[in-house]
Amino acid sequence: MADTSITKVNSHFSPKGQMGQKYLASGVHLSMRLWEDEQPADIKPPTARDYETVGFVIRGRAELHLENNQVVVLEPGDSWAVPKGAPHTYKILEPFTAVEATSPPAQVHGRDET
Length: 114
Prior knowledge:
The protein is mainly β.
């Protein structure tokens, strides 16, 4: 029989990752995380992750820099997708809050911390 349990996570008590993200609900194939009130900073070197990411901006502005010199400005109400393995980085332009979903779950097997 398949697992039919529901998971609820209160973000006030969520575990935090090394990059400041809060881990929200997670299933076998998909997880969510919250970037809350990220402050403007210099752009970091691009990274390629072992998962696909989709996100939604709640507040603030940021630039998403992709491997092929593509830059996308993210503003409240925008959503985005980064393919698995695509080198990318973010530049926070003003205090930024966004929710992301990753598949497979970013926090499993250290995928989020490498």
